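Researcher: Structure for this, please.
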Amino acid sequence: MSRICASLAMFALFLVTVSPAQEKGTTDSKTQGNGTPDAKEPAKGKSLSATKVPRRVFVSTSYAQLLRTPSVQEELKLSSNQRKRLVEVVNKAAATDAEAMKRGTEALKTLGPEPNQEEVDALRLNFREESARRVDDLHAAQLAVLDRAQRTRLEQIRLQASGPLEFKIPDFQRRMNLSADQIDLIDSSLAEGIVEERRRNASWNEEFGKLLASGSAKSNMRDISPDQVEKVKAIHERLGKELTQLRQSIDQSIFKILTKRQRANYQKMLGEPFDLNKETKVQAPAATSNRDSSK
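Model: Predicted structure, token format:
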């Protein structure tokens, strides 16, 4: 009995994780940083991204997440009727998610108290595929609420928010007409960036942990002294600057891999820079280089 209860709990968690009505993206308040850029604005070229730097550089985003963001709603000039319809779309998706979770739990119970792992895996795969379809349905329903100009601007903002991660998506690679060599070079650059991001976050966590363990600090932020609060802010600000520089470095490396025509096409896709938080912007490298190839 304990085994099937554990399986049910794991399966329920899996379903919640992939729930289209509960998507998480780059503007999740729990992952935001408070850093500011520490680099000069380039003379030429638009931003590869114009969003506040989170504690994680590599975070995907979605239409659903962006449409929940007040600054995006304002940028799109959503009418009161559109906002109401978008809420209705999300609520309907949430109800569908709940039904899917119930079906999944019941289906798992039918496998018996000692379910075969292959059957459990097959069931999970089936619901993962269903979840992906529900995400597509949610996005389609949300986009249907918007007019053409709003849909175009939303996609531009999504690309800016996603940044370098977008280059790992096959469909985007085709849109950019990337060669196999370019894809390999970009993948290598992103892989190095991910390793560096993890290293910096690990260093931040270690430093933060030592601070909490010092003096009269206890196990959470509510118990630390005013002096320690200022030290935490300083550490967090420094991390924000470091991650801003890391993002800029990755952007620059990708820009150098792209041809002149590809860069122009990409910046056209991005549209005008947009700051999700109306506070700080991450600037891109200049779009010109004598060594770059062209088509």
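Researcher: Any notable elements?
Model: Residues 239 and 261 are 34 Å apart (CA to CA). Confidence is low (pLDDT under 50) at residues 1-19, 24-55, 279-295.
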